[in-house]
Structure of Peptidase M14 domain-containing protein:
Amino acid sequence: MRRRRLRIAFLALPAMLGSVLIGTPPAGADPVESTSTAGSAHSHHDHPESAQLVRIGLTGADMLDKVVDAGFDIDHGLKRVPTGIEGEAVVTAEQITELEAMGVKILAEDEGFEWPEEADGGFGAGAAAARTVQPLSHAQTVRVVRADWFTTKGQGFLYVEARTTEGQQASPVVMMQLENDSGQGSSFGFARTMSRFVDSGQYMFHRNLFKLDTRPSQIRVTSSTGGVTTGSVSNWLEDAPPPLTENPGYQYDFIDGYKHPQQLFSRAEEIARQYPDIAQIIYLPNKTNGYQRKAQATIGGTGQAAVVVSSAAWGHEGGNDVTVEFVERPGADLPLTVEVAGKAVRVLLAKDAAGAVASTAAEVAAAVETGSQGLIDRAHPYRTNTGTGIVVPTSGPVALTDFLDEKRVGAPEGEVPRGPATVPVLRIGKHRDGRNPGVLIQAQDHAREWVPATTTLETAERLVRNYKTDKDTKKIVNDTDIFLILSNNPDGANYSFYNFASQRKNLTNHCPDADADPARRNSWGVDLNRNYRVGSAHDGYAGGSFSCISGTYQGPEKLSEPEAENIVWLVEEYSNIKFMMSVHSNGGQLFWQPGAYIADGRITTPRPPMGDEAFYWQSASRILSQVKAYRETVVTPENVGGSSDVLYSSAGNVREDLYHTYGIYAFGWEVGGSIYNPTTGNWQGGSFQPPWVGDPALVSGHSETMEYANGIMEMFRIAAEWGKDKKKPTSELVPGGGKYSGPVDVRFETSEPATIYYTTDGSRPTLDSPRYESTDFREPGQVFHVTETTTFRWFSVDTAGNVEKNYDPENGNRNNYRMATITIGQR
C-alpha cells in the first residue's frame, strides 16, 4: 500500500523548546557598516570594528524573536535553561548597549546555568516527610519521559526527562527530585533536583543531565506536590553495529579541506564523468540570483543630507565603472540639473538668490534617478531620513562599487563567476529509473555552514569509490537512488568565503530603501530554510521574520526564492524520493517534525503519527551510533526529536513542507555541536567554520566531516532496507482481552514502528479511524482506562506501508482486522 500524503490539520498540541546556537563570526570577517562621506573621492570597504564574545541571557523565545528581528545574528547554539535561553554572541560595544536596552542580560564568566555536579539535599525534611509513594496508574501525576545512559570519552552520563501533570503551576513552582540506584538490586540514592523548563508560557518538562561512575538500572522521580514514579534506564547509542569504515579495504577520508561552491560543483560533475554507470548530474531548473550585486555608494554621511545611489547594471557588468559627483557652480538662481558623460554622472546643484547651494537630498535623489540616462536605478535619502538636508558638494567623483571581493587576500584561489548560478544535483544509484527509494541530501542552505558541504561530498566519494570493492556499499548503490545537493546556496556560500564569513542567507535583496544602503549589505538575503509553505510565518508561526535584514527573513512570499523552488521541483519530478536530510551546523541536533509553532499557546504543526515518530527515533539511534563510532561524539537525547521541541520554532522550513506535502521522511541535522573534554570535564562547543585540523578528540572540521559522513551512510542503509521491507507488522492490546473484576488500563504494542488505527464503537477500522497517539510529546503510547465492557478493533501499518495480516482498510469485504474484548465486572 502506498503511503498517503498527510492532510494538514493544525491542532493545538503541546511542544517544548531545546537548545539553539549563536553564529560566531570567524576572525577576520567583514563588519557590517560602510559609507562614503562627502569629501571622499571613492567608496571604501569596511574596516574591522572591535568586537568581543559575550554570553547573553534571554527571557525566552519571544525575546529571541525580537532580537533576531532587530538584525542580531542569534540562531544557533543557544541553550534552553530554566530562566529562559542562554548563549553567546560576537558584538561590538555599541551592540551590547542595544542588547541591554532590549532587556538582554550580558552574563559574567561565572554566571549562567550549569547542570549540578554534586547531589543535593532534596526538598528538605518537611517536604520529604510529607511524601508518600503512590502506585502507578493511568492518572499518575508524575511520569518518566525518558532515562538514557550513555558513555563518551570514558565517562558515563545519565539524562532524564520527567513530566508532572501539575507542572504548569507558576507559583509555587513544582520541584522534582531525581534519585537513582547504583546498579541492579541496589537501593535508591544520589538525589538531584530536576530543572523545570517552560517555553512561551507552556510547561515542557523537568530534566537533568549528570555524570555517573556506574550505570543505574532504575530511577525514582518525586514531585514536591507528592507524586512519585519509577522508571527503567535505557542505553542510548549502545551496542551499535560497526560502521562501514571498519570493513576490510574500505576507503574513506577523501576531503582535504573546506570547499567553495565552484570546487564542490566541479567535483560533482567530475564524479559523474568518472562513474557514468552509477552517477549522473541533474541540473536544477531555477537559476539563483548569482554572486553579483548592484554597485552602490552612500554620499554625504548618514544624516538628512545623505544620498544613497545604486547602479542599474550589476557591478561587474558596468556598475562598478559608474561615478557620481555633486558639483557646486559659481553664480546664483541656478536650477538643479544632471549631466552624463560616459559612465560619469555629474549633479549640478541648485543655488538660491544668494548663491548658496539649495538642493536637498530628496531633490538630488529624484534628479539622479530621472536624469542619469539609465545608469542609476535607485537613488534615495539614507534609510528612514526624509532627505530635507542640503547636500554638500563632493571633492570629486565618487566611485560606485558592488563590494564583492572574489580575490580577497586569504580567500581561496580562483575568481567567482558573477552571473546567476545553476545548481547541480549529483545522482548516485545503479538503477536511476524510480524503482528504488530516493534519498535527498541537501547541504548548505545556510552559507556560513561549511562542514555540511564537505560531509556530503565525503559521502559521495565513499559511494563511488567503494562500489566495486565493498559489498555493503554496493548494496546501498544498487538498492537506493541518492540525490546530493552539495551546496543549495552557492551565492551566499561564495559571499561567506570571499566577503563576510558569517553570511547566512542567499544574495537576493528584497529590502526597501530604508535598508538598501551598502552598510546593510551583510544583512540582505532570504533565509532559505524559512521560505517554504507549511507552518510559515506568513501563517502566524514563530521563527520566521518579516524584516529583510533579519537572519531569519522568510522572503516576501512563500517559495519566493529559486533555491526553494528547486527543491519542490526535484521532489515532484522524482516522486521516488522518500527520505530527505537537510544538513546544517553546528548545534549537534538531529530532528524532524513538528518544526514550528504558533507562539501564543505553542500550537505546533501536526505531530507525526506514532509509527512515524517511532521510525524517526529508531533511525536516529542508528545514524547517531555511527557518528559515535568515529571518535565517541554523542548527540545527547535532549537534542533529538521534533525540532520545535529540541531546537526552536523555525517557521517555513523545508523538512515540514516535504513531510506534510509529499510524505517524505525529512530529517534536519545540525552537525558539530558539543564534544566532551575529559581533561577539563566540560563540553566544548563547536562553530560554523572550525579549524579544519585540530585535536582529533575535540572540535575540527575534518573530524566532523568524517563522523557525520558515517551517519549519512547509515541513513542510506536505512532507506535501502525500507525499500525492501515486505514484512507485515504485528500488534497486541496489553494486557489483552478477557474478563476483569474492575476497571483496567490497556495499551497497544507493536512489533516494529507502526501506526495503529482503531475503533471502540463496533465499526470496522479504516485509515480514517482514530489513530493510537502518544501520552504526550516524547512519551510512549496512551493508556486507555477501561471502566465498562469494550471491544477494540484495530490494525497496524508500518512505515513502508505494510498492513498487518494483509488487511485492506479501504475494502469493506474483508474483516481480518485484530479484535479484543475487555469485559468488566466478571472473573
